[in-house]
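Appendix B.2, paired examples.
Example (i):
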Amino acid sequence: MPIRAAWQTLAPRLPPGLLPRSGGTPLPLPPGQQQQGFLCVGGYTEEEGGQARAPTGEALAVRLWGSPPVARLPPTGPAPPPRLASAGATVGSTAWIIGGWDPGTRGDGGVILDDLWSADLTPDPGGGGALAWTPHPAAPLPGGPASRHAAAPLGDGRILVLTHRCGERLLVLDVSQPGAPAWSSLAATPDAGGAGFPSSRGLASLVALPSACEDGSTTLLLFGGAPRRGGMEADLWRLRVRGPAAAWERVGPPAPGGSGPASAAAPWPPARCSHVAAAAPGGMVVWGGSFYHTAGTGGLVARGDAWWWDEGTGAWSALECDGGDPPPLPRNAAAAAAVTGPDGRAGVLVSGGWDPFRVTFGDTAVLWLG
């Protein structure tokens, strides 16, 4: 049965002087600050109605309340160079951005990055102003550069990072001492049902559920993504991390004729990559993304559907988005983060994105649950 949700448009376009963008990395503002939202770092910018896209290293504050909802945060000193398809997370009052792709001059292939940067968010960036970045040249990404990867905080001062090269050994960045970040790895066991490990992919979502389990572990959900070849993925994996160990569990989709909470008769989101995913109490919201249209041109097609994963029941439900503003147009590569409204409702704040090879968006909206 569909679950009701409603969109609220905060701004149909960006303020003067800012360009629409896609592929930026969302870094949530710290919990406890008056302002809610995220930093959007980097991405592709494109003039409205234009065809040429250009990479940027610019940082924006995207705010649930504030005028305007999106504001530029100029750096006070050195800052991450232009990039997109990076990974990042916020731990405590520090935001971290890891690697990514600088496309460089059109046609030259650019460069994949392995650098690590942090920004102190203690001076509330949601209120505007400047942003102080710190490079960490002594802690490059182990194994070499990466883009289209994913990261999520573990709740214990560490960040889990999944790249194409991750399998039974997962990368962990310890940022409990922000001035001395340290990389390590942890062993992961395969799915007990024989599904092994998630296939190599990029542009997937990795979401840490809000509360720790009774045994002190953290539960993360990996959904969708794009393999190096072939169509997009629609599978959902659960990863439980406790201390130096982790265990994978393939949740679905089930094989035809399967049974259980996520049975073959239950709804399941279609395949996608570059979608929005955010945790909310009890589960996860997924919206948008893109897939390959195999008939006709075979090009990328944007999605505009919204889904709710209920961790308690182990089932997906389509979100019926009515009763509010018109939903944002279908897109991929938007930036988003979980927020909470003044009435306590959970929401997902979304900004920008791209309808592949058609238009880059500059709007900002929030999807409210319930």
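Example (ii):
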Amino acid sequence: MSLRAFHIIFVIVTVALSLYVAMWGFTEYSRQRDTGALALGLLFLVTAAGLCVYGKKAYGKLRDLP
């Protein structure tokens, strides 16, 4: 597996994990009304969005490499 493929796969897995943790935080907030869980959900939602932007830019740059 090339370093380019590993990087793209790693970004995709990290986005999926971030979305899962965000969903878990929102679920915990809806059950217990814990603001820490809401903050965790929002933090990981923003992280997932940032990783999507990063992944799109990285894919564009890595696509041109041999």
